[in-house]
Write a structure and sequence with these properties.
74% of the residues lie in helices and 0% in strands. It is mainly α. It has a domain of 210 residues. Helix 6 runs antiparallel to helix 10, helix 9 runs antiparallel to helix 18 and helix 10 runs parallel beside helix 18.
């Protein structure tokens, strides 16, 4: 039997639990005709049972202990704590009125003759602020749909504008689930990942804005925003500034939650009990993600222990001799995982350990690996018609997800831009790790 002191032998059979998960979640959903028919938590429970059952870790008690060791990994527990604080902050901010205030602020300063581009920029600002693409789509899509009816701009176009901007923030926000998981699995600071990520995606966000300006030019903005409450937008600016300065993310989220609570009490949005209720609802709302994170951590530890991850890495890197090839393989792993799960956070949890091994072997900087993981997860999540983002946008506008897809310029450019960054080794400053080994670029 293998021990932790020995080199783990690559073993394809160790991937059986992953296959069980894909069958239980993906195949069953396809057959049922509803991608959310099978709860992802149930699929992970089934695959975790199989992982424990078939493991070579000795007695059942020892195998369960090994599973718990993976589930209670320091990185997993830290992610759980961050999710808890992120949920408390997001829900407190929403109850206090910060989301509505941000929508009114961004829409009030939009140029009237570039409506589509303005909504895209509004979605970018809101999603970076609230850290959730689905939340941004829920907040802004009804506004975009109303503007479509008033101006004659195609409804699928306006839905796509919101989805594109929402994915921009999902990729870059410091309080986004994807940012949290990508940075924790790769072992880098959020500020470092943000700088690398920003350099890659910003040119294509600007290009997307230009495209939407050309498509929507001449149309007047008939939207009348509500009163702007500047104090209610303040927590988002504070959180963003503190995160960019490199303040510990848990302190950032805790401080943001306290600030939102105080502002909410001072403005009469809620009392002390309303604040605690909002925090409780936010934490509870993270329940499924926390459960999945813990189960995935345990299952992946069993797969790693039995040689599954070593087998994947061996096969993926057998013919790789360059950093470019390694980065493309990281992009491929996360894209495939996202296509299978339709959830970019879960895909990152599953693909993160593999990407970290590949990055370490080819001396890819952790912040670059985290950026590539997050970018490609958001690229895929933003274009699949069975993902939560497109399904939500389609539901709120009454159009089909497929009709929205042809207007998703930002997600398409996001994927293209990331591939271009790999090819050009851009930004070079953040491409290499600290390992001094010389590999061909």
């Amino acid at each position: 039997m293998k021990t932790e002191k020995n080199t783990i032998t690559p073993n394809a059979w160790a991937l059986v639990p992953l296959g069980v998960f894909l069958i239980a979640y993906l195949a069953v959903s396809v057959v049922a005709g509803d991608f959310y028919k099978m709860p992802i938590t149930v699929a992970f429970v089934l695959s975790s049972i199989v992982a424990v059952w078939m493991s070579k870790g000795g007695t059942l008690h020892n195998r369960i202990e090994l599973f718990c060791k993976g589930a209670a990994n320091a990185n997993i527990m830290l992610m759980v704590m961050i999710f808890i604080l992120a949920g408390a902050f997001a829900q407190t901010a929403k109850a206090m009125g910060a989301v509505d205030a941000t929508v009114n602020l961004t829409l009030s300063i939009l140029p009237g003759n570039v409506l589509a581009a303005g909504i895209f920029l509004a979605a970018c600002v809101i999603s970076v602020s609230v850290g959730t693409s689905v939340g941004t789509i829920v907040a802004l899509t009804p506004v975009a749909a109303g503007l479509s009816a008033q101006t004659g701009l195609p409804l699928p176009l306006m839905a796509a504008v919101v989805v594109g901007g929402a994915m921009f923030g999902d990729n870059l926000s410091f309080i986004s689930d994807t940012t949290i998981v990508a940075t924790r699995t790769q072992g880098c600071k959020m500020a470092d990942k943000f700088r690398t990520n920003f350099a890659i995606v910003m040119p294509f966000a600007i290009l997307t804005t230009v495209i939407y300006i050309l498509m929507g030019s001449g149309v007047q903005n008939a939207f009348t925003p509500g009163e702007i409450s500047w104090i209610k937008v303040l927590p988002y600016f504070v959180v963003l500034a503190a995160a960019i300065m490199g303040v510990n993310v848990m302190l950032v989220l805790l401080g943001g939650t306290v600030l939102c609570g105080l502002i909410g009490i001072l403005t009469g949005a809620f009392n002390i009990w309303g604040w605690t209720t909002a925090m409780g609802n936010g934490i509870t709302g993270m329940g499924e993600l926390i459960i999945v994170t813990i189960l995935a951590g345990g299952m992946l530890e069993m797969i790693r222990y039995n040689g599954g991850l070593a087998w994947i890495i061996q096969k993926m890197t057998a013919k790789l001799h360059t950093r470019r090839g390694a980065e493309v393989s990281i992009a491929g792993v996360i894209s495939f995982a996202n296509l299978c799960t339709a959830n970019n956070t879960i895909a990152l949890i599953m693909a993160g350990p593999i990407a970290k091994e590949i990055a370490g072997r080819f001396n890819i900087a952790p912040n670059r690996a985290a950026s590539l993981l997050d970018i490609f997860s958001c690229f895929v999540q933003g274009i699949i018609p069975y993902g939560a983002q497109l399904l939500m946008a389609a539901s709120l506008t009454g159009v089909s997800p497929v009709s929205i897809m042809k207007y998703l310029y930002y997600p398409y450019l996001l994927g293209f831009g990331a591939l271009l960054a790999i090819w050009l080794r851009y930004p070079r400053k953040h491409a290499m790790g600290t390992n001094s080994s010389q590999l061909e670029a």
